[in-house]
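Tutorial, part two.
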Amino acid sequence: VMRKGRDIIAKAPTGTGKTFAFGIPIVEALDPSCREVKTLILAPTRELTIQISEQLRLLAKFKNGIRVVSVYGGQPINKQIEALKRRPQIVVATPGRLIDLANRGALSLESVTIAVLDEADEMLDMGFMKDVRSILDRLHAMEQMVMFSATISREVMDIGWLYQRDAVELEVLPQEESLPPIDQFCLLSYGGKKLSDFISIMDANGYKKAIVFCNTKRMVDDITAFLTQRGIPAEGLHGDMKQSQRDKVMESFRRGQVPVLAATDVAARGIDVSGVELVINYDIPQNTEYYIHRIGRTGRAKRHGVAYTLVASVTEGVRMDEIARNTKAEMTKLKYDSDGCLLPVT
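Running the prediction step on this input gives:
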């Protein structure tokens, strides 16, 4: 559909190949001799921007002369201005940094014919509606606008109504073959017991690579410090960190130098790290979509994954029941027996 030049609103679960779905038609259509930006891809986070760029560069290896540049906040802007002087045909960007570069005259959007909004629902939920509209209003040569989203929110529909023409709606259903094989458990655990339960789960099963998701930056820092004190190498990832720090943490985790990554939901979407065996929801996610994206960090490429959610109260138990219903997940509730072993609740 994208090859035909149609505008698209695509709804698809995480891990179903969205980047290549738009990346392959884009690279195929580009003229390597072109010296102008022809394709603009907007993403909500720096991490996702970097990941999309890396995937597109893999595709560009099959077509000499295709240049991809990523621009995002948290990195020195002068470095990105220098990169743009290489005259890329594809720019992958977060909205704020893109507007900054365009206002400085370092980036022209006059020749952009294809615009892609990746993780559109997340980007608009994060408050980027005004920035996204400001950018799209500058794309006077735009011929095709494509949105990929895990959910079709009211904001996504509004952008489609304003900027798309007769858009084709595509949906990848979360059927059995596209769902990662993830065993899902929940365990009543509260206070300081949460950390000891997490360590017990790691030790008992010999997990070597885990992500612990928290709702606050402070909790990320607390867990990282606690694990480090216990002799378990751990790093934290949240929005208050400099981009250079975040890049270093992610690289260490990808390489397996650090077995545990504690993170807020900034790391939940779009981060593709191979070999994550375990996801722990230390805090109950704020909604069902966050839960789906969190546990989707394990079970990548159809490998087997495991996700535990630590439930601290009856209220949180009710919320987990609701998440299980909404996701149609087989959620196994666990409890400790008299010997301290975890067993399913019967």
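DSSP finds twelve helices and 15 strands in the chain. In part three we will examine how such features are distributed along the chain.
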